[in-house]
Amino acid sequence: MTNRFTGLFDGGSRFLGLGLDLIKNRLELASVELREETTFLISMLILGCIAVVTSMMTLVLITFSVIFLLDVSMRPLALIGATALYAIASLVIFLVIKFKLKNRKPPFSATAAELAKDRQCLQGDPPH
After folding, report:
1. What phi and psi, each to the nearest 5 degrees, are found at residue 70?
2. Rounded CA separation 26/20 (Å)
3. Residue-level pLDDT at 127
4. Which of 23, 26, 105, 116 pairs with 49 at a CA distance of 20 to 30 A?
5. What angle do CA 25, 105, 123 make, to 5 degrees?
6. What is the reported pTM?
7. φ and ψ at 82, to 5 degrees?
8. Contacts within 8 Å (CB) and 24+ apart, 70-75
9. Residue 91 Cα distances to 3, 8, 13, 95, angstroms
10. Angstrom distance (rounded) from CA 72 to CA 77
11. Distance between CA atoms of 47 and 1, rounded to whole angstroms?
12. What DSSP line would sit under 37-59, residue for residue?
C-alpha cells in the first residue's frame, strides 16, 4: 500500500516539476520579448528625436543661408522652395517610421504561439 502512495506522490511531483519548468520557460520567453519591445520603442523614439532635430537645423540654416545670399526680389521664391524641400524631407522620414511600425511582428507573438502549442498539447491535440 505504501509503494502505491509513494509512486503516486513521485508521479505527481514529477508532473508538478514539469509544469513549473514549463511556466519558467514561458516567463523567460516573455522577459526576452519585453526587452526586445523596450529596445524597439527606445530606438523609434531616438529616430523620431533625431528626425525632428535635423529637420529643424536644416530648416533654419538653409533658409538663413539662401535668404542671405539672394537678392531681395528672389527671397520669397527661395522661402517657398526651402519650405517644399523641408516638407519632402520630413515626409520621407515619417514614412520610414510608419513603414518600420507597420512591418513588425506583434508584441509577444512568440510567447503567444508557444502558449497556444502548450494548450494544444495539454488538450491532447498534436501541435501543428
Report:
1. -90, 160
2. 10
3. 56
4. 105
5. 45
6. 0.46
7. -65, -40
8. none
9. 75, 67, 60, 6
10. 10
11. 69
12. HHHHHHHHHHHHHHHHHHHHHHH
CA distance 76 to 51: 26
The CA distance from 106 to 70, in Å, is 51
Low-confidence ranges of the chain (pLDDT < 70): 1-12, 122, 124-128
Taking the CB of residue 27, how many other CB atoms lie within 10 A of it? 11
| Residue 126: predicted pLDDT | 61
Give the DSSP H/E element, type plus range, for residue 65: helix 2-69
Name the nearest CA neighbour of 25 among 106, 126, 105, 117.
117
- pLDDT for the residue 78: 82
Cβ contacts of residue 90 below 8 Å, gap of 6+? 51, 55
- Residue 47 is predicted with a pLDDT of 95
Residue at 107: amino acid letter: P
Sign of the dihedral defined by the CA atoms of residues 63, 66, 70, 73, in that order: negative
